Structure prediction request, 272 residues.
Amino acid sequence: MAANIIPKRADLLFTYASDNIQGLVKKEKTVGVKQNTAKVLGKALDEARRAETAYQTGSTELATKLSPRQKKADADAKKYISDATKTLRAQLGTRWSQAWPETGFVNNSTAIPTKIAARESTMKSLADFFVANPHREVKDLSVTAKRAQAIHAELVAAREAVSDRKSDLRTLRDQRDAAFKNLRKRLIGLIGELNTLLTTDSPVWRAFGLNVPADPNPKPKEAKKADGTASAAKPAKVTKTRKGTATPESNAASEAAPERTEAPATGVALES
Prediction:
Protein backbone atom coordinates (compact mmCIF):
# COMPACT_ATOMS: atom_id res chain seq x y z
CA MET A 1 0.00 0.00 0.00
CA ALA A 2 1.31 3.44 -0.90
CA ALA A 3 1.65 6.25 1.61
CA ASN A 4 1.96 9.90 0.65
CA ILE A 5 5.00 11.35 2.40
CA ILE A 6 5.30 15.09 2.96
CA PRO A 7 8.96 16.23 2.74
CA LYS A 8 10.58 18.37 5.41
CA ARG A 9 13.38 19.83 3.26
CA ALA A 10 12.30 23.22 1.93
CA ASP A 11 12.91 22.73 -1.79
CA LEU A 12 11.22 19.32 -1.84
CA LEU A 13 8.33 20.60 0.27
CA PHE A 14 7.75 23.51 -2.12
CA THR A 15 7.78 21.21 -5.16
CA TYR A 16 5.38 18.81 -3.43
CA ALA A 17 3.00 21.66 -2.58
CA SER A 18 3.22 23.04 -6.13
CA ASP A 19 2.20 19.66 -7.53
CA ASN A 20 -0.77 19.59 -5.18
CA ILE A 21 -1.79 23.10 -6.21
CA GLN A 22 -1.57 22.31 -9.91
CA GLY A 23 -3.89 19.38 -9.34
CA LEU A 24 -6.30 21.57 -7.41
CA VAL A 25 -6.40 24.15 -10.21
CA LYS A 26 -7.52 21.42 -12.62
CA LYS A 27 -9.58 19.15 -10.41
CA GLU A 28 -10.78 20.80 -7.19
CA LYS A 29 -14.24 21.66 -8.54
CA THR A 30 -14.70 18.30 -10.22
CA VAL A 31 -13.58 16.36 -7.15
CA GLY A 32 -15.37 18.66 -4.72
CA VAL A 33 -12.47 20.03 -2.64
CA LYS A 34 -13.88 22.82 -0.42
CA GLN A 35 -11.42 23.53 2.39
CA ASN A 36 -7.85 23.09 1.16
CA THR A 37 -8.31 24.73 -2.20
CA ALA A 38 -5.72 26.01 -4.68
CA LYS A 39 -6.17 29.51 -3.29
CA VAL A 40 -5.70 28.40 0.32
CA LEU A 41 -2.66 26.21 -0.42
CA GLY A 42 -1.21 28.85 -2.73
CA LYS A 43 -1.31 31.43 0.05
CA ALA A 44 0.32 29.01 2.51
CA LEU A 45 3.04 28.16 -0.03
CA ASP A 46 3.75 31.83 -0.78
CA GLU A 47 4.09 32.60 2.93
CA ALA A 48 6.46 29.67 3.43
CA ARG A 49 8.59 30.72 0.44
CA ARG A 50 8.85 34.31 1.67
CA ALA A 51 9.74 33.18 5.19
CA GLU A 52 12.41 30.81 3.89
CA THR A 53 13.89 33.50 1.62
CA ALA A 54 14.02 36.03 4.46
CA TYR A 55 15.77 33.54 6.76
CA GLN A 56 18.29 32.45 4.12
CA THR A 57 19.03 36.05 3.13
CA GLY A 58 19.75 36.94 6.74
CA SER A 59 21.95 33.88 7.19
CA THR A 60 23.93 34.74 4.06
CA GLU A 61 24.49 38.31 5.23
CA LEU A 62 25.74 37.06 8.59
CA ALA A 63 28.12 34.56 7.00
CA THR A 64 29.46 36.70 4.15
CA LYS A 65 29.45 40.23 5.54
CA LEU A 66 28.90 40.65 9.26
CA SER A 67 31.01 37.79 10.62
CA PRO A 68 33.98 38.63 8.33
CA ARG A 69 33.70 42.27 9.41
CA GLN A 70 33.89 41.27 13.06
CA LYS A 71 36.80 38.93 12.32
CA LYS A 72 38.77 41.72 10.63
CA ALA A 73 38.03 44.20 13.42
CA ASP A 74 39.20 41.64 15.97
CA ALA A 75 42.36 40.94 13.97
CA ASP A 76 43.12 44.68 13.93
CA ALA A 77 42.58 44.78 17.69
CA LYS A 78 44.95 41.85 18.28
CA LYS A 79 47.67 43.51 16.21
CA TYR A 80 47.25 46.85 17.96
CA ILE A 81 47.34 45.23 21.40
CA SER A 82 50.47 43.30 20.39
CA ASP A 83 52.22 46.44 19.11
CA ALA A 84 51.14 48.47 22.15
CA THR A 85 52.40 45.77 24.50
CA LYS A 86 55.83 45.79 22.88
CA THR A 87 56.18 49.56 23.21
CA LEU A 88 54.86 49.67 26.76
CA ARG A 89 57.17 46.90 27.93
CA ALA A 90 60.09 49.16 27.06
CA GLN A 91 58.52 51.91 29.18
CA LEU A 92 56.79 50.04 32.03
CA GLY A 93 58.93 46.93 32.28
CA THR A 94 58.77 43.49 30.73
CA ARG A 95 57.02 41.99 33.74
CA TRP A 96 53.52 42.89 34.85
CA SER A 97 53.37 45.37 37.74
CA GLN A 98 50.96 47.90 39.23
CA ALA A 99 51.95 50.26 36.40
CA TRP A 100 50.07 48.06 33.90
CA PRO A 101 46.39 47.96 35.03
CA GLU A 102 45.61 51.47 33.80
CA THR A 103 46.63 50.37 30.30
CA GLY A 104 43.98 47.67 30.37
CA PHE A 105 46.22 44.73 31.26
CA VAL A 106 44.96 43.14 34.46
CA ASN A 107 45.08 39.71 36.07
CA ASN A 108 48.87 39.89 36.47
CA SER A 109 49.45 39.44 32.74
CA THR A 110 50.51 41.49 29.72
CA ALA A 111 49.40 38.81 27.26
CA ILE A 112 46.76 39.49 24.60
CA PRO A 113 43.35 38.56 26.09
CA THR A 114 41.96 35.30 24.73
CA LYS A 115 38.31 36.40 24.54
CA ILE A 116 36.98 38.99 22.11
CA ALA A 117 35.02 40.76 24.85
CA ALA A 118 38.20 41.16 26.89
CA ARG A 119 40.08 42.46 23.84
CA GLU A 120 37.33 45.03 23.30
CA SER A 121 37.73 46.18 26.91
CA THR A 122 41.52 46.32 26.59
CA MET A 123 41.24 48.44 23.43
CA LYS A 124 39.07 50.96 25.32
CA SER A 125 41.56 51.10 28.19
CA LEU A 126 44.51 51.57 25.81
CA ALA A 127 42.70 54.37 23.99
CA ASP A 128 42.00 56.14 27.30
CA PHE A 129 45.58 55.54 28.47
CA PHE A 130 47.16 57.13 25.39
CA VAL A 131 44.73 60.06 25.51
CA ALA A 132 45.95 60.70 29.08
CA ASN A 133 49.60 59.90 28.24
CA PRO A 134 50.29 61.14 24.70
CA HIS A 135 54.04 61.08 25.37
CA ARG A 136 53.86 57.26 25.43
CA GLU A 137 52.44 57.00 21.90
CA VAL A 138 54.68 55.54 19.18
CA LYS A 139 53.39 57.00 15.93
CA ASP A 140 55.83 55.04 13.74
CA LEU A 141 54.03 51.87 14.85
CA SER A 142 50.58 53.56 14.79
CA VAL A 143 50.33 53.01 18.55
CA THR A 144 48.27 56.14 19.14
CA ALA A 145 45.10 57.12 20.97
CA LYS A 146 43.37 57.98 17.70
CA ARG A 147 44.15 54.58 16.20
CA ALA A 148 43.02 52.77 19.36
CA GLN A 149 39.74 54.70 19.40
CA ALA A 150 39.04 53.85 15.75
CA ILE A 151 39.75 50.14 16.22
CA HIS A 152 37.68 50.00 19.40
CA ALA A 153 34.73 51.75 17.74
CA GLU A 154 34.79 49.35 14.77
CA LEU A 155 35.10 46.31 17.04
CA VAL A 156 32.06 47.42 19.05
CA ALA A 157 30.04 48.18 15.91
CA ALA A 158 30.93 44.86 14.28
CA ARG A 159 30.07 42.86 17.40
CA GLU A 160 26.73 44.63 17.80
CA ALA A 161 25.89 44.07 14.12
CA VAL A 162 26.54 40.33 14.49
CA SER A 163 24.56 40.17 17.73
CA ASP A 164 21.61 42.04 16.21
CA ARG A 165 21.59 39.84 13.11
CA LYS A 166 21.66 36.66 15.21
CA SER A 167 18.69 37.97 17.18
CA ASP A 168 16.86 38.79 13.94
CA LEU A 169 17.62 35.32 12.61
CA ARG A 170 16.04 33.68 15.63
CA THR A 171 12.86 35.62 14.90
CA LEU A 172 13.03 34.83 11.18
CA ARG A 173 13.62 31.15 11.95
CA ASP A 174 10.55 31.05 14.19
CA GLN A 175 8.47 32.75 11.51
CA ARG A 176 9.74 30.30 8.88
CA ASP A 177 9.00 27.30 11.09
CA ALA A 178 5.47 28.58 11.71
CA ALA A 179 4.91 29.10 7.97
CA PHE A 180 6.22 25.60 7.20
CA LYS A 181 3.99 24.12 9.89
CA ASN A 182 0.96 25.85 8.41
CA LEU A 183 1.84 24.65 4.90
CA ARG A 184 2.21 21.06 6.08
CA LYS A 185 -1.07 21.35 7.97
CA ARG A 186 -2.78 22.38 4.73
CA LEU A 187 -1.15 19.56 2.77
CA ILE A 188 -2.23 17.03 5.38
CA GLY A 189 -5.69 18.55 5.29
CA LEU A 190 -5.85 18.16 1.51
CA ILE A 191 -4.97 14.47 1.71
CA GLY A 192 -7.54 13.99 4.44
CA GLU A 193 -10.13 15.75 2.32
CA LEU A 194 -9.27 13.61 -0.71
CA ASN A 195 -9.62 10.51 1.44
CA THR A 196 -13.31 11.37 1.85
CA LEU A 197 -13.82 12.27 -1.82
CA LEU A 198 -11.84 9.63 -3.71
CA THR A 199 -11.62 5.86 -3.53
CA THR A 200 -8.26 4.44 -2.53
CA ASP A 201 -7.71 3.07 -6.05
CA SER A 202 -8.80 6.18 -7.96
CA PRO A 203 -6.20 7.33 -10.55
CA VAL A 204 -7.29 10.93 -9.84
CA TRP A 205 -4.86 10.93 -6.89
CA ARG A 206 -2.03 11.20 -9.40
CA ALA A 207 -3.46 14.47 -10.76
CA PHE A 208 -2.55 16.02 -7.40
CA GLY A 209 1.01 14.66 -7.54
CA LEU A 210 0.09 11.99 -5.01
CA ASN A 211 0.40 8.22 -4.90
CA VAL A 212 -2.72 6.14 -5.35
CA PRO A 213 -3.14 4.72 -1.80
CA ALA A 214 -4.19 1.26 -2.97
CA ASP A 215 -1.31 0.92 -5.43
CA PRO A 216 0.99 -1.83 -4.08
CA ASN A 217 3.89 -0.67 -6.27
CA PRO A 218 3.72 3.08 -6.74
CA LYS A 219 5.97 4.43 -9.47
CA PRO A 220 8.76 6.49 -7.88
CA LYS A 221 8.71 10.13 -8.80
CA GLU A 222 11.47 11.31 -11.11
CA ALA A 223 14.09 13.35 -9.31
CA LYS A 224 14.63 16.80 -10.72
CA LYS A 225 17.90 18.64 -11.15
CA ALA A 226 18.26 22.35 -10.45
CA ASP A 227 17.67 23.12 -14.15
CA GLY A 228 14.40 21.16 -14.11
CA THR A 229 15.66 18.20 -16.12
CA ALA A 230 15.23 14.67 -14.86
CA SER A 231 18.13 12.94 -13.15
CA ALA A 232 19.19 9.57 -14.54
CA ALA A 233 18.22 6.67 -12.32
CA LYS A 234 21.09 4.97 -10.51
CA PRO A 235 21.87 1.44 -11.74
CA ALA A 236 21.19 -1.42 -9.38
CA LYS A 237 24.06 -2.27 -7.10
CA VAL A 238 25.30 -5.86 -7.33
CA THR A 239 26.42 -7.64 -4.18
CA LYS A 240 28.29 -10.94 -4.27
CA THR A 241 27.25 -13.67 -1.86
CA ARG A 242 29.62 -16.09 -0.18
CA LYS A 243 28.83 -18.72 -2.81
CA GLY A 244 29.89 -16.35 -5.57
CA THR A 245 26.43 -15.62 -6.94
CA ALA A 246 25.32 -12.04 -7.48
CA THR A 247 22.14 -10.49 -6.22
CA PRO A 248 20.82 -7.06 -7.20
CA GLU A 249 20.53 -4.53 -4.42
CA SER A 250 18.99 -1.10 -4.91
CA ASN A 251 21.11 1.92 -4.12
CA ALA A 252 18.27 3.35 -2.09
CA ALA A 253 18.25 0.29 0.16
CA SER A 254 22.02 0.20 0.56
CA GLU A 255 22.20 3.80 1.69
CA ALA A 256 21.02 4.92 5.09
CA ALA A 257 17.60 6.40 4.45
CA PRO A 258 16.23 9.08 6.78
CA GLU A 259 13.88 7.69 9.36
CA ARG A 260 10.28 8.56 8.64
CA THR A 261 6.82 7.76 9.89
CA GLU A 262 4.33 6.36 7.41
CA ALA A 263 0.58 6.58 7.78
CA PRO A 264 -1.84 3.93 6.56
CA ALA A 265 -2.42 3.63 2.84
CA THR A 266 -5.00 6.41 2.77
CA GLY A 267 -3.10 8.65 5.17
CA VAL A 268 -0.14 10.96 5.16
CA ALA A 269 3.37 10.82 6.59
CA LEU A 270 6.05 13.34 7.42
CA GLU A 271 9.72 12.76 6.76
CA SER A 272 11.89 13.09 9.86
Remarks:
- The helical segments are 10-31, 38-92, 116-132, 145-197, 251-254.
